[in-house]
Each structure stands twice: as structure tokens, then as C-alpha cells.
Design brief:
- It is built from 17 helices and eight strands.
- The protein is an alpha/beta fold.
- It has three domains: 3-92, no CATH class; 99-249, 3-Layer(aba) Sandwich (Rossmann fold); 256-378, 3-Layer(aba) Sandwich (Rossmann fold), CATH 3.40.50.
- The protein is globular.
Length: 380
């Protein structure tokens, strides 16, 4: 057996797999693609198949939702096997142009969206935003996220967080144009080799974030939050998601929701917030404080939540399946519940679910909105 396959087997503990199939049985994208996680894990043991496995298009169907890891009775992480296979392709240079361009943009411009570093804070124009400098003491250091910073559809999330923070009087500061990609999706796209782009970005970000005298790093995106919690071992400050902070502000009466929203609201658990990090209560508490709102639950919620297909690098990879997207299934479930508002707490979830809403033709019956978008409409 060659050194490469031995290293692969040991890294992902492939010999610990008992081939029970729970990973494939629980995988949400299996119902609409040819992805068979168990089969990938089994075939990866064959030293003659590793390169061929990496070239299979199903490698890119995985959304890194973590369901396979949650369901594995041996505590293994099959998702990492698929990311490892992607890494083989990335190192060989044989990847889709969109993947190549996203990785190159992350390296050159600090974001995967091919946008200029110099325009990262343009969304702040016209707002009263506190930007802090390295060494400056701040209670809550806000980390915005590439997608929120550059995509006009979701910039309202950051803008409304500024509104919430200013209204509550909390001590906070933004990083400004020095902020750079958290590298979560760089990792999921397969750039995970030793001393590769992911490791370089983690090292650079750790140095940047540790240069601030911050008590807490507040990540707006669950993808940034998950990366900082799980893949940044040397951060000095505590890492929280914005829903942790907003829940505190509501409990301490520093923030009050003064307007009513008489709608039936259902919350969609983002995979990188819920399954990945067990943050379930905070978003629901925030929504429960909305005057006039009625909260309902999806049948598949919390650890069983249905993935929207926005994670795992899927924003840059198009699947070949023609079956209904999972986000469309989710919107259909919301309609069956009679929900007028689908609340999310992730920019990727918003983008995929809003597209699904339009694809299903339900725009007149319901709305998809990020929690901070909703809060911005409920405070004076």
C-alpha cells in the first residue's frame, strides 16, 4: 500500500467505519443526487481507486451539512473524506472554473466573490459605524463575512446589526477593510493541504483578530462562527454568534421590539449554526420576543433540519441533478405549515431559500427574511 493511501486512511480513520450506512441514509442530498457517502468511504480504502474517486462529480454534491457525522455511531466524520477527495483535485489543478476562481479570489482579494479588498466596507456608507483599530479595547469585535459585505441582497443584515448595536448602546467595533475571508468555504472547496491556502488564511486571520483587545468576536455568519470555533485554535477572544449577543440584549432590556408582526413564523436552522455547533435556542428566543408573532416548527428541525444546499462550497458549484432543490422542499414545507415568514440566521440560507421561494412562485404568500432584517423593521 502506497504512502498516500496510508496517510488518507489514517487521517480520516477509514478503518473505523463499520459500513452501517447511516451516513448515506441521513444525507439530505442523497434523495436528489447520486451521492453515496458510505460507498465513498468504503472505496477510499482501495489504493487503486483514490484518484478515480476524486474525479467523480458526486464529490461536489456534498454540502458539508454534517448530518453524516451527527448520525455516525462510531463518531467518524465522513464529510471530511469527501473534502479530502476534493483536495486531491485542487492539488492536481483539475477543478471547475468557478471553484478555481473562488479560491484564487480568496487568495488575492480576501474573499471568494472576485470583489476588491478596498470595497469591503462600502456597505457602511451613510451609517454611524464604529471601526476600531488594532490594540484598541472593545467588548464586541464584529466580523461581517464576505457574502454579507459584498452581496447587496444581504448587506441589510450587517446594516441592521449596526442599528441594533447603536440602539442598545453596547460596546462594539467593526474591523473595516482589514477584515478578510474566514476561509470556511476555502476549506470546504478542498484547499486543505498542509501549508496551503486554508492554513495560511487561518494564520493571517488569527494574527489580525488577536491584534485587537477584544473580549468577544461576534460572527454574523454561521460559517464564520463555525470556522472560528472549530478551526482557529489560537484565538484569544471568546467567539459567539450574533444571536447570542442579541438574546443577551433582549434579556437585559437593552433592546426592545416595539412594533407588532402578526405573522406565523417558522425558523430554518442553518446547518453550520445548528448541526455543526448546537445553537438552537438563541434564534428561537429572539423570534419569541416579537410582539404578535406565532412561532411554528418544521417537522425536520434542529439536529434534523433539512439543509438548504448553500454550504460546502455549493455557492460556487452547480449540481447536475434536475430534481427539486432541498431549499424548494423547505419552502414547500413552510407553505404546508401556513407560515407567512420563513426566518433564517445565515446569508447562504437566505439566498438559497429566497431563490426557492421565487422558483416555487410563493412570493405573494410568504417571505424569507434573515432575523436581523426582521429586527431592523421592529425597532424605532
Amino acid at each position: 500500500m502506497n504512502t498516500e493511501i496510508q496517510s488518507f486512511i489514517q487521517k480520516y480513520d477509514l478503518l473505523g467505519c463499520i459500513q452501517c450506512g447511516r451516513c448515506t441514509g441521513g444525507c439530505p442530498v442523497t434523495v436528489r443526487t447520486s451521492l453515496n457517502v458510505r460507498r465513498f468511504v468504503y472505496n477510499a480504502l482501495d489504493e487503486n481507486m483514490l484518484d478515480d474517486l476524486a474525479k467523480l462529480p458526486e464529490v461536489w454534491d456534498c454540502t458539508a451539512c454534517n448530518t453524516c457525522a451527527v448520525r455516525c455511531p462510531k463518531g467518524l466524520k465522513p464529510v471530511e473524506v469527501l473534502i479530502g477527495l476534493r483536495n486531491i483535485l485542487v492539488e492536481s489543478g483539475v477543478v471547475q472554473p468557478a471553484v478555481r476562481d473562488a479560491l484564487e479570489s480568496a487568495f488575492r482579494e480576501g474573499n471568494p466573490w472576485k470583489k476588491s479588498r478596498a470595497t469591503r466596507s462600502d456597505w457602511m456608507d451613510g451609517l454611524e459605524v464604529n471601526i476600531v483599530e488594532p490594540g484598541e479595547k472593545v467588548e464586541n469585535l464584529i466580523f461581517v463575512c464576505c457574502t454579507i459585505a459584498y452581496d447587496p441582497k444581504v448587506q441589510v443584515i450587517a446594516k441592521n446589526l449596526v442599528k441594533v448595536l447603536n440602539k442598545s448602546g453596547v460596546d462594539y467595533g467593526f474591523i473595516g477593510n482589514d477584515e478578510t475571508c474566514c476561509a470556511s468555504e476555502v476549506y470546504n472547496l478542498g484547499e486543505v493541504g498542509e501549508e496551503g491556502l486554508f492554513d495560511m488564511m487561518v494564520e493571517d486571520n488569527t494574527e489580525l483578530l488577536n491584534s485587537y483587545d477584544a473580549a468577544r468576536i461576534v460572527a454574523i455568519s454561521p460559517h464564520c462562527y463555525s470556522a472560528f470555533k472549530k478551526q482557529y485554535p489560537n484565538l484569544k477572544a471568546e467567539v459567539i454568534h450574533y444571536t447570542h449577543l442579541v438574546k443577551e440584549l433582549l434579556e437585559d432590556k437593552k433592546l426592545e421590539l416595539t412594533k407588532e408582526l402578526p405573522k406565523k413564523i417558522v425558523f430554518h436552522d442553518p446547518c453550520f449554526l445548528g448541526k455543526q455547533n448546537n445553537v438552537f435556542d438563541e434564534p428561537r428566543y429572539i423570534l419569541s420576543q416579537i410582539p404578535g408573532a406565532e412561532l411554528v416548527e418544521f417537522d425536520r428541525s434542529k439536529q434534523r433540519s433539512l439543509c438548504c444546499e448553500g454550504g460546502g462550497g455549493k455557492m460556487w458549484v452547480e449540481t447536475e441533478s434536475r430534481k427539486e432543490r432541498l431549499a424548494e422542499t423547505r419552502i414547500g414545507d413552510a407553505k404546508d405549515l401556513g407560515a407567512g415568514l420563513v426566518a433564517v440566521a445565515c446569508p447562504f440560507c437566505f439566498l438559497t431559500m429566497d431563490d426557492a421561494l421565487k422558483a416555487k412562485g410563493f412570493e405573494e404568500e410568504m417571505r424569507v427574511a434573515e432575523i436581523l432584517e426582521i429586527l431592523g423593521e421592529l425597532i424605532d
